[in-house]
Amino acid sequence: EVQLQACGGGLVQAGGSLRLSCAASGFSFDNYAIGWVRQAPGKEYEAVSCISHSDGDTFYANSVKGRFTISSDNAKNMVYLQMNSLKPEDTAVYYCVANHDIIATMFAPEHGYRGQGTQVTVSS
Question: What would the pLDDT profile of 72-88 be if each residue is shown by its tens digit?
Fold first, then answer.
């Protein structure tokens, strides 16, 4: 059974930091891109960041470049999203998602694997 278990969300003041974690199981980690999309109330899913385990490529949305860093621990099948300099507009439910490539993972999350979300709230 494929599972993507995300955790690490919370309430933080603007300028603060959080680290999200995603534990992946039930599929071959090395053949997938794993990343994060987010959804704010009343809005569509937004691609945030992704890492490809086949070639090591990474993707960052323009809105998070320079503030967020994605990394993975292949031995533990874990993916992390370090979020620094958080802004109120980063407030959303963050979902860990996986598919065979970065494009599909980020821009068609409904066609891949998706875990339960973790709430990130940034107060001003």
Answer: 999 999 999 999 999 99
